[in-house]
Write a structure and sequence with these properties.
2 copies of one chain form a homodimer. The longest helix of chain A has 18 residues, at 107-124. Chain A folds into 2 domains: 7-148, 60s Ribosomal Protein L30, Chain: A; 165-308, Alpha-Beta Complex (Phosphoribosyl-aminoimidazole Synthetase, Chain A, domain 2). Chain A has helices spanning 5-8, 10-22, 70-86, 107-124, 174-183, 190-197, 203-211, 224-235, 250-258, 263-269; strands at residues 32-34, 41-44, 49-58, 91-101, 127-135, 140-148, 165-169, 216-220, 238-241, 275-280, 290-297, 306-308. With 324 residues, the first copy, chain A, is of the alpha+beta class. Chain A is globular. Chain A has a 6-stranded mixed beta sheet, sandwiched between helices. A 4-stranded mixed beta sheet of chain A has the order 3-6-4-5. At the A-B interface, α1, α2, β2, β3 and β4 of A face α1, α2, β2, β3 and β4 of B. β2 of chain A pairs antiparallel with β3 of chain B, so a sheet runs across the interface.
């Protein structure tokens, strides 16, 4: 019989997590003043501010254990939070994790989860500074990530102005396509399935955007249309997207063709890739990794809204979690 | 029919929470640079460090909706986190909350929860800076709190030295007694039930301890014996508690008598009051609110451990969450 967290007990489990954390690599040097094991952690906040974000992942809703490995879940939980830090133009520094586990969860699952957490935290330069482990009926993962603005202004979603170039960095639609593939009972194309299991946000693109003069910046987590609409509303502009300019993943395109679907369904409506959406002043040289996909305009009579190729989009713009 | 979060939808629910947060009182001025509504929040971290802690509360395990009101749950979730900030000698600044809700949860419950969160955050001087709301099968509340050390050193649990005076600030055992009362189907004594529903940690006592020269400081969340043992192990000392010196709540004492129980069962073994446990150098004038209850000693052959009145304690020292 595989050992479960119920066999191990909470205190031994926490000790195990702390021990694994000690060997972690990739975090910025000197950021952890006090690490796991006390009432709270102490992290460096060098510029006198801390950027902070939190996200919750629920088993059966944000991941399935038969579709994603424990390591995948750890990677994804960290990635979506660090992407939010990057989307402010900040550099990740640290994170804390709340983990609710059924007692029958295998200790090996927790080990794998933690390996994924530490690998992705290290890729983003962040340290795992603390956490909490409790008993529950399903797995709930709650990550809070922190970051450092390095004396720059935070780049909000509200800063786009009429005339700005709208640009993206990172994949669009691949995670949604991977989820669609899994939902139909397939395990390939692997590139799409992996995009669902383990988003790979380019965290440094957030800092490059900030340094490159981005006026607005945000994480695309609920689909390009819905998130672009959020930027439009926050900024008081209209945004027109040129569908032909959106980078189209080749595997996504061929899979959409095989399913007889318009690839734009995934590209415009699919979330979870954690691309960055930015607005740069017209005529800016875009930072490495960014592609121009549209233009911010003065809002018309219908107010701040998103159009695609000048027309109201036909694709379902994202989805709401509580509605069935 | 009462409106549910499923009726309202995620986006409207988040807007509602953000609107309620705007009217909140009590947070320190200037601490929120960027509040809820963007990818992440930006909080002031004036001394170049941030103290951070996280705790998860699960419905049915950490609270029951028939025993605690929505407001009680909000108060408790915030209180246990701000107590951890105080237990580092820091002053709370802000918090973020992850909330997993069944779609059939009434919007009125969320409103009440948020009122409790904002009231307790305000009592501690902290701002609600952001959060995440997701769908789930039970209510999960995940709070991450942040604090400011105001240029002081963090006071760890590892700093106690042989000869130190061990002291506590706050109630001990009342929350456990309240839970015992509720478990037996009673709703009174009200003072004990309220202590379970809404702990009232003295957050400022953490700062007073730090300024008063505390060498070790921690939150008592799993019971005095278990938490004192953690301090003993971290500090490499033995701790002897003088049971007669522990402040004994009168209602707790009379309720224990009515149940034919030794009140020390609750006082030594019961958690959730979030008292502060501290070690001060011998001869120190104890800060306001602290009472000496024991002494740190050189560990004997059995290593760092806790004794009560010089003997091994007979009471169950706390409990582990995963074991049945």
């Amino acid at each position: 019989m595989a050992q479960t967290v119920g066999d191990l007990g909470e205190i031994a489990l926490v000790d195990r997590i702390i021990a694994a954390t000690r060997g972690a690599k990739g975090a910025r040097k000197g950021v952890v003043n006090v690490g796991p094991g006390d009432d709270a952690a102490v992290l460096a906040a060098p510029d006198g501010r801390v950027v902070v974000t939190t996200d919750v992942l629920v088993e059966g809703r944000h991941f399935r254990r038969d579709w994603s490995s424990a390591e995948d879940v750890g990677v994804k939980a960290v990635a979506e939070n660090l992407a939010d830090i990057a989307a402010m133009g900040a550099r990740p520094t640290g994170l804390v994790i709340g983990l609710a586990l059924p007692p029958e969860t295998e200790v090996a699952w927790v080990d794998g989860f933690l390996a994924g957490v530490l690998a992705e935290a290290g890729r983003g330069g962040a340290a795992l500074a603390g956490g909490d482990v409790v008993r529950a009926d399903a797995i709930y993962v709650s990550v809070t990530a922190m970051g450092d603005l390095e004396d720059r202004d935070a780049v909000l979603r509200s800063g786009a102005r009429a005339g700005d170039v709208i640009a993206v960095a990172g994949r669009l639609g691949c995670a949604a396509a991977g989820l669609a593939v899994l939902s139909r009972g397939f395990r390939s194309p692997r590139a799409l399935v992996d995009a669902h299991r383990r988003p790979e946000p380019d965290y440094a693109a957030g800092v490059r955007a900030a340094e490159g003069g981005a006026r607005a910046l945000m994480d695309v987590s609920d689909g390009l249309l819905l998130d672009a609409e959020r930027m439009a509303v926050a900024s008081g502009v209209a945004i027109d997207i040129d569908s032909g300019a959106i980078p189209l993943d080749e595997v996504l395109a061929s899979t959409a063709a095989a399913y007889n679907l318009d690839p734009l369904t995934w590209v415009l409506g699919g979330g979870d890739d954690h691309a960055l959406l930015a607005a740069f002043p017209k005529g800016s040289a875009l930072p490495t990794g960014f592609t121009a996909i549209g233009t911010a305009k003065k809002p018309g009579e219908e107010g701040p809204r998103v159009t695609v190729d000048g027309r109201a989009p036909e694709v379902v713009p994202g989805f709401e979690h509580f509605r069935s």
